[in-house]
Amino acid sequence: MLYMRQMAIAQEVVTYLKRKPYIQEALEQDIINYSALARKIAEDLGDAPVEAVKSALIRVSKKFRAEKRERDQVVRTLLQQAHFSIENKIATIHHSTFIDIESVAYSKTPSGYMYFVRETKVCKGKFAKVEYGFAIIRIRSSKAIEETPGVASFLLSSLASEGINVAHLMDCREDTFLVVHEHDAPIAYKILAERLAN
Which of 168, 190, 176 is CA-nearest to residue 144? Predict the structure, then answer.
């Protein structure tokens, strides 16, 4: 009976953590106080035994860390084999309908179309919503990217952790486009190169 209760608590802890990805990430990074977290979870679960919750937390965090290491290694290997390039002097055009313009990339959204165009191709005054001063980091990967979870997360968190904002992300099969402000592009490229070298 005790074993069944411990298994039930362990399952409740896993379910709890899956609803709170920020806690799961802290466990993956091994930067959490298990006792304090166990008390909080035990309270949230309706006064479950704190020691049973803590034991479950320790077990599940080891599993989370192992899975994260494996996931990160798969993502790194995939991206180490990808081709990265930067194109500067990009303007963004948001338009409600399709327009026939030579673009580096574009996507259809519920509110219309988003075009990424070389600044030299934009006719000034023709479009209401044009923004200048962007760059595109293009990543050309193998088809394996379609079956590999965590690629976008790896790219975005690597840049966000260094204060780089990705203004737009487009991902279509083997092509991933990260649109950043032009002044951030060399730094973003360097950050990604360093993350993939480790």
Answer: 176
Count the alpha carbons within 13 Å of 53 in the hemisphere toward its beta carbon: 23
| Distance of alpha carbon 64 from alpha carbon 24, whole angstroms | 8
Are residues 134 and 191 part of one domain?
yes
pTM exceeds 0.70, yes or no = yes
90 shares its domain with 139: yes
Among 171, 194, 188, 156, smallest CA distance to 85 is for 188
Residues 110-160: pLDDT tens digits?
888 899 999 988 877 677 788 999 999 999 998 888 888 889 989 999 999
Phi, psi for residue 113 in degrees, rounded to 5: -120, 145
Per-residue DSSP letter, 184:
G
Q: Which two tokens stand for residue 154?
A: 């790896």
Q: Are 95 and 189 found together in one domain?
A: yes
Among 64, 79, 94, where does a domain finish?
79
Place of tokens 């799961």: 24
Joined tokens for residue 49: 């035994």
Residue-number span of the structural domain to which 190 is assigned? 82-197
**Domain C-terminal end among 79, 113, 135:** 79
